[in-house]
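Follow-up to my earlier ticket, as requested here are the two runs.
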Amino acid sequence: MRCMAIPKSWSDRLGSWKGTYKLRQSWLAPDKQIQESASALHLDSDARRTYATIVYHWTADGVAQEGTMLITYASKAKRLEIGWADSWHQSTAIFHAKGEEAADGSFLCKGSYTAGGQTWGWTISIAFVGEELRIKMDNVPPDGKPDWAVDSVYRRA
């Protein structure tokens, strides 16, 4: 019996997407905090639909960047698990996050990391809204107040 699979709603959404990637660096001066770039994303799965991959490309300060998410879905628990790497956000570490499916089919996955001797959080939201794929990420400082870091919106290529 197979209990891991990609969400059923994703099956007809596999393929190439194009959109906009917004990166917010809250520590910079207000007029320099947000960078917006064109972005391409490819959503795929293995032949048996047991896991999915999201591979995306974007630009920061004129330098090409890319990220990859390996995603598994426990259908009985309606829980998504992500292993994420991104050339700008991490160096050589894989970030792990997990979260449950909301009633609208979206996912909010949470994980943590250590910086400056403190534990920080990071959230990854993945949602299909109409004809769009939206991926949002928040950095969560030790005080617990989320601070948006990435807001990307894609449409079928």
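Run two:
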Amino acid sequence: MQINKYRISPHAARRMAQRNVTVGDVALVLRFGQIVYRTSAEFYFLGRRDIPRGMEQAMDALVGTTVVVEGDAISTVYRSRRALTRIKRKHKWHRARNYRPRAGA
């Protein structure tokens, strides 16, 4: 299954079913949500301010929905109204991938 240019991983499909998020909901979050790049992933977060005028009532249930994209695949989907602050606290890269021990260590 695919949304726009992203394929949905089996894990994301399972989480979408558990959390009652449809493919259309994910497409709306990808279209209107703000993008934060952290830990080698793209986080699409839909906040209240991101909802276009006239669509507030239809999209109110999606506030706080976060779609995590790694590469060309959607890796997971979850809802949390405080997710944006937690995402912004993450490091910008995985430490393990960029870790190089010092010469004297």
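The only thing I checked on run two: The chain is about 30% helix and 25% strand. Let me know what else you need.
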